[in-house]
Amino acid sequence: MSQQKLKLSASILSTGVPGKPGHLFILSAPSGAGKTTLRRAVLDQFPDLLYSVSYTTREPRHGEQYGVDYKFIARDEFEKGIAGDRWAEWAEVHGNYYGTAADFLNKELASGKDILIDIDVKGTRKLLRRYPESITIFIMPPSLDVLRQRLESRGSDSSEVIALRLKNAKEEMAQKEHYHHVIINDQLSDAVAQLVLIITKYRTDG
Questions:
Q1: Of 127, 156, 122, 118, which is closest to residue 33 (Cα–Cα)?
Q2: Is residue 153 part of a domain?
Q3: pLDDT digits (tens), the chain, 206 positions
Q4: Domain at 8, CATH number
Q5: What number of other Cβ atoms are within 10 A of residue 157's Cβ?
Q6: Is 77 a member of any domain?
Q7: Are strands 135-140 and 87-93 parallel, antiparallel or unpaired?
Q8: In 3-state terms, what secondary structure has residue 30?
Q9: DSSP per position, 41-80
Q10: Are 116 and 49 in contact (CB under 8 A)?
């Protein structure tokens, strides 16, 4: 299906149906499988699809924007959020907190808005406890060898970091059967088309 046709089919959909809860689409993938690229492509196809931006206590990296890449907050504020049940899910990774705001999900889903979130396998399990009707989609690389090549081509990680990412990828890929849909990202255009069709189906069928 052409990108023009995909955009046309996506543009006829709208969110915010009164009295009808929205859909929560959860996207997961190993590092290097193309999740970020696919997420950006889908948000381009569905202008009315909301994206849940995660909160984090780490410092912004060069070029990162507040509210686009992450919402950067102080550690004590995040911990107050833990105590106040502010987060739909949260985790501490390498000394920094990451979390998803429950009030955003609750408010927008209740108003009928559809939301996309990209998160790891552990985060997905936590979200499903609160939002069991979520649609889960796992993005797979064609193979671990291809994934290794992609990670190496970035030129940003040491061999040790790449080895760790591949180890984590194996563990995550072993849990793909727990997802409703699995997409193999071999050709990007095909993967985008599959993802758009999956989301379109749920938004059309209700």
A1: 118
A2: yes
A3: 555 545 544 544 444 555 689 999 999 998 888 888 999 999 999 999 999 999 999 999 888 889 988 999 999 999 999 999 999 999 998 789 999 999 999 999 999 999 999 999 999 999 999 999 999 999 999 888 888 888 888 776 788 888 888 888 888 899 999 999 999 999 999 999 999 999 999 999 86
A4: 3.40.50.300
A5: 15
A6: no
A7: unpaired
A8: coil
A9: HHHHH-TT-EE-PPEE-SPPPTT--BTTTBEE--HHHHHH
A10: yes
Tokens 């985790």 found at: 91
Q: Is residue 65 part of a domain?
A: no
Q: What are 97's strand-pairing partners?
A: 92
Examine residue 40 and state whether it is found in any structural domain, yes or no: yes
Nearest alpha-carbon partner for 103 in 94, 95, 115, 121? 115
> Residue 31 in contact with residue 168, Cβ under 8 Å?
yes
> Containing domain of residue 8, as a range?
3-52+112-205
Looking at the structure of the chain, the number of domains it has is 1
Q: How far is Cα 65 from Cα 29, in angstroms, rounded to an integer? A: 23
3 state DSSP class of 90: strand
Neighbours of 106 (CB within 10 A): 13
